[in-house]
Write the structure tokens for this entry.
Amino acid sequence: MSRPIRLRQASSGAFALLLLIAGVTSPPFAGRVSAHGPDPMLSSKLFGQDQAVSFRWRTGSEPPSAIKTAVKAAAAGIAASRRSRAATFPYASAGGSLIGYGAGATCGVNGIACFTRSAPTSFTMWLREQGRVFDWGTLRWCQMYTTAPTGCYDAETIALDEFGHVEGLGHHLNFGDDTDYLDAVVQTYSRTKAKSGWNEHALGRCDVATLQREYDVPSSATGISTCLHLDTIATLGATATAVVYGGTVGFTAGLRIAGDADYGRLANNALSGRTVKLQQRAVGTTTWSTVATMTVGTASGTYVASVKLLSSSEFRALYSASSTEGLNGDASPVLSVLVASCAGAPCLLPSPR
Amino acid sequence: MPAGMSRKTRSLAVGLVALSGALVTATVAGGAERPWEPPPCTRQVAPSTTSAGTWWRLDPRLRAGWLVGQRLTLGSGRDGRRTFVDLPAEAFAAGPFGGVVLVGSDDGDHSVLSLIDVPGGCATPIGASDDVIRRATLDTDGGTVLEFRVDRATRTDLGLFRRPLAADGSPERLLGPLDPDARFGPTWTTELQWSTDGRTLAMQSCGAVSCRTRIVDPAAGMVSQTVDPAHGDIVGLTEERLVVHGACGGTPCPLISVDLRDGSRTTLAEAAGQAVIATGPSDRSVVVYEQVDGARLRSIDVDGVPVGEVDRLIPNGLGLVPGAGRAGSAAELDPGVVVLGPGGRMPLEGPLTPVLWRLSDGALLPFEEVLP
């Protein structure tokens, strides 16, 4: 809730009171919002997974060719960098969504571009015209120049931002010093040439994080955005929990994302293609040693290894967090395998402890 | 020239007549179409009380994608007459105020304000400045113009100025510049909008996404200000409430109603399209807005109490025409109606014509039907 604060007396003396209604910052977005993390979501519906939402140019408001090229490149950039099953935006002459330039942008008064989204059916996007005058000065699109001048906006970056909104992304919440600006293209303030990030042509990791969470990943081997910090669950099973001396035990590990409700569509996803190690220790000891890097199993998110056993041992599967993706490490519960210590035949298996 | 002008004012007016040439003699567009050149008004332009149906629409004129000017189309629903004038790239329109459209144009050296009497078919210059007049409006009696200016060289905010139309005197500054605030960034647009009772003026300054609103009561000298980065552009102002979009950069977007007495906020809709304030049944101020899918109009009391909430299917191809800042067009309407236009704007041409939605009974009426 906002609260009234008495501010100051106007210098002209004409106004006795200046009442400041200072609002607590509360962006109009639904879902989790953190100081630094995945982009927040806009509070409305999503498009379908991998839905191709085709667009065409708005009759009478077609962009100039340089801007068209930039918008198409941005659409391709979304497809290439989404790392998720978010919608794609191919151009088609009969596309159902309209992108316009200049006149008729009723989606907002400020900014250099805006959008409307009617998920899951269509969207509109507008880019303001080259030369539009704002209070601060005149809009310049870099693409409209042979040599882009300092202070111009990159239309591809801006269109990428707008496509991000169309997907459902809200503006990324940066640190106060903006040191994480490059983590997202969907930004409240777009940068002009030649400030860092002015011509980003791929989604940032925190854009991707939200798309992965909301739309899921295309496969269990897809890397999870480092903007996420998801818990994982490792499991371990064995073909036997007791073997004769020298017997071989097959181990199968499972690795998946935890089932946290905040993980959206990523919850409980199997994780393939990761490095899962099988570790062993002697019964009664505390030090683990890696006996195998498990290989890919037949089922999604499974890893296998076989070990010849000479003594009773404990095993676990270990997934260590990687700096290249946003998954926390996990170790499976310990699995004990007993080995019969027989001096002669027949060798009797001891009872499990 | 109005009587009672000083020598200085008369001198200015002569210059304005010359400058106003830029307003009406710009390029010929599209071959046969020629811009209208409204003759000077022979008597003082004054808002009429019977001019519902006057409308305007401002569109960029582009050449190979570059803005070369703006075209102001003026219309009157009463007789279907439509004409246009060509303006420089930096130009705006406000109103209509009783059939009068206030036009600002800047040629790079001077800003000029003119009043176009649409039913009367004439225009008159009313002021000029070496500063850039970015926006202006007439007060409710049509006797005073309020101007928002920026510095020509630096584009910094100079504040809001008041200029009496008929009397002698220099413009008086009512509000100083807005203090910089990193949460809002540089100001992109400033819009002026009167409250529904015409007593207070919202002066809203928007950064790239979020907006600050200062509310001026020229008569009482009171100012209030809302500073909340969650606020986007203005929907409307009543005596007690400011209604804004959320800071979304697009739609759908929440609609937020702020109680100006205590600053408390009410979310009127979580995901809305275009929205306006209108007079609903029992003369209550209501917010009319498009639902998230753009297929239905709904209305809700401005304070968020869902009394008398109604909804209606929007005819195919039409959209609610929002405020002038968004729509780049505006129509003068009788109380109790909102206008729906193709693409949410007043139309230039084409098969779709605007219609009015009468809130009292939900009827859809041709745009011309409710005219006096």
